[in-house]
Design goal:
globular; 22% helix; 36% strand; single chain; Nuclear Transport Factor 2, Chain: A
Length: 88
């Protein structure tokens, strides 16, 4: 799977969450829980995936492009998200 992201968004994600959006390449989709992000009315359909990168659970917000996954945000899952993931 190919990934793409905005370089300035990558810098802000690194500052805010301590993770580069490029780390999404290690996201394990096989056990991920995916839901549509409907918090706002976005210009394109967005999704939120909770899954592992290595040993740690992460949350990735992304949209699907014809030839790639466009990563919008990537961060470590918080306690509530870890609990919700465990309940699925």
């Amino acid at each position: 799977m190919d990934y793409e992201f905005d370089l300035s968004k990558d810098e802000s994600n690194l500052d805010k969450h301590g993770l580069s959006l490029a780390e999404a390449e290690g996201f394990e989709w096989e056990a991920a829980v995916v839901r549509e992000d409907t918090r706002k009315q976005y210009a394109e359909q967005r999704f939120e995936a909770t899954g592992y990168i290595g040993e740690r659970l992460h949350v990735m917000v992304y949209c699907l492009r014809p030839d790639a996954v466009r990563v919008i945000s990537l961060r470590k899952a918080n306690t509530r998200e870890v609990k919700r993931y465990a309940e699925t």
